TrEMBL record:
<protein>
    <submittedName>
        <fullName>Geranylgeranyl diphosphate synthase, type I</fullName>
    </submittedName>
</protein>
<dbReference type="GO" id="GO:0008299">
    <property type="term" value="P:isoprenoid biosynthetic process"/>
</dbReference>
<dbReference type="InterPro" id="IPR033749">
    <property type="entry name" value="Polyprenyl_synt_CS"/>
</dbReference>
<comment type="similarity">
    <text>Belongs to the FPP/GGPP synthase family.</text>
</comment>
<keyword id="KW-0460">Magnesium</keyword>
<dbReference type="InterPro" id="IPR008949">
    <property type="entry name" value="Isoprenoid_synthase_dom_sf"/>
</dbReference>
<dbReference type="InterPro" id="IPR000092">
    <property type="entry name" value="Polyprenyl_synt"/>
</dbReference>
<dbReference type="Pfam" id="PF00348">
    <property type="entry name" value="polyprenyl_synt"/>
</dbReference>
<dbReference type="GO" id="GO:0004659">
    <property type="term" value="F:prenyltransferase activity"/>
</dbReference>
<dbReference type="GO" id="GO:0046872">
    <property type="term" value="F:metal ion binding"/>
</dbReference>
<keyword id="KW-0808">Transferase</keyword>
<keyword id="KW-0479">Metal-binding</keyword>
Length: 369
């Protein structure tokens, strides 16, 4: 058995390092491919390495421990292929982050300037013609596209047996389709005003976006992908779907709380950034539902302003707290966590897989980053 895997610590440093090593190795192998196209691609190679060099590694962990849930702890001979396949989800994830940052006009990602700003800076430093910001957005979009392509190549070349890959691929396909559709649902939602006279509609719309953009993408499909590699039967896959969807929602709701109340030094992005973006979250929808007319009007005048001051962020936080929204979201996180864990109680999975997935569930919702 693989000694680096400990179900009591499913996100332990040795596992995360194995994921990083798999990513580093794959990207190193791609360098001569890009160099063969032209020296201009060096910026792509460098930024791909920068933005895949951090993160929580939750998706690879859900995939790897989904395998364990179905098949038990892997032997050394299969571990490297499983880690490489699981690590491919990080390339897909970073691809989505690159596109997200362009759509949201975000300034930072993982504690450094967002990709579109780094490409724009390259344009400025080289004194090229045209608009630097337009060049930056184009570069970041293409970097995201390249990472998406590479995510497929990485899993295809992971060393999985054809039958194993054949079982797992439908879950990857569903993951890619659902997150892209969820992204568009989010774009559509952001284009519509939050209406205090249609509070339940606001809440229902946010929940639908979260289900497809985050819940299935962050937990459900990764854990099912891993379980498929372990030859999970329909009963186990159904149980993992019942585990993954509510846990993914709880994960996103925690992210939304951190986006408003988190410590900028810890979360790696500007504090209150979601307020400046006017991001439609369950937290904001609950705040409108729990505020009187004056509070609703004031909150709506604050959120969505790119130059919202620190004082404005503090005022918006106070309105949200007073409305009871923060407490309601915390209650939703706990309810979804309990629903997720209850699904495991009925699931026919290995002991090590059960222990790890329970631990991962708590790690996903009890976090500060």
């Amino acid at each position: 058995m693989v000694t680096v895997l400990d179900p009591s610590q499913p996100l332990a440093a040795p596992f995360r390092q194995d994921v990083q090593d798999a990513l580093t190795g794959f990207l190193t192998d791609q360098r001569p491919v890009l160099a063969g196209v032209g020296t201009e691609l060096e910026a792509m190679a460098q930024l791909a390495e920068v933005f895949t060099g951090g993160g929580k590694r939750l998706r690879p962990a859900f995939a790897l421990w989904g395998y364990v849930a179905a098949a038990g702890l892997p032997v050394e001979e299969t571990y490297a292929a499983l880690v490489r396949a699981a690590a491919s989800l990080e390339l897909l994830h970073v691809s989505a982050l690159m596109h997200d940052d362009v759509m949201d006009n975000s300034d930072t990602r993982r504690g450094v300037p967002a990709a579109h700003l780094q490409f724009a800076d390259l344009h400025d430093r080289r004194d090229w013609v045209g608009a630097a910001d337009q060049f930056g957005r184009a570069g970041a979009i293409l970097l995201g596209d390249l990472l998406l392509v590479w995510s497929d190549e990485m899993v295809q070349t992971a060393g999985l047996a054809p039958a194993v890959l054949g079982r797992a691929r439908p879950y990857l396909a569903a993951m890619r389709t659902e997150v892209t559709c969820g992204q568009y649902l989010d774009v559509v939602a952001q284009a519509q005003p939050l209406r205090p006279d249609r509070l339940q509609d606001n809440i229902d719309q946010v929940r639908r976006v979260v289900e497809f953009k985050s819940a299935r993408y962050s937990v459900q499909r990764p854990v099912q992908f891993g379980a498929a590699m372990g030859d999970a039967d329909e009963q186990l896959q159904a149980a993992l779907a019942a585990y993954g969807s509510p846990l993914g929602r709880a994960f996103q709701y925690r992210d939304d709380l951190l986006g408003v109340f988190g410590d900028e030094r810890v979360i790696g992005k500007p504090a209150g950034g979601d307020l400046r973006e006017g991001k439609h979250t369950l937290l904001l929808a609950y705040a409108l539902a729990g505020s009187g007319e004056a509070g609703q009007n004031r909150l709506m005048s604050l959120v969505g302003s790119p130059d919202l001051s620190a004082e404005g962020i503090t005022e918006a936080r106070d309105i949200i707290d007073t409305s009871g929204a923060r407490t309601r979201v915390e209650a939703d996180i706990q309810a979804n966590l309990e629903r997720s864990l209850a699904a495991l109680d009925r699931a026919p999975l290995s002991g090590a897989g059960r222990e790890a997935l329970v631990s991962l569930a708590h790690a996903a919702v009890s976090r500060s980053v």
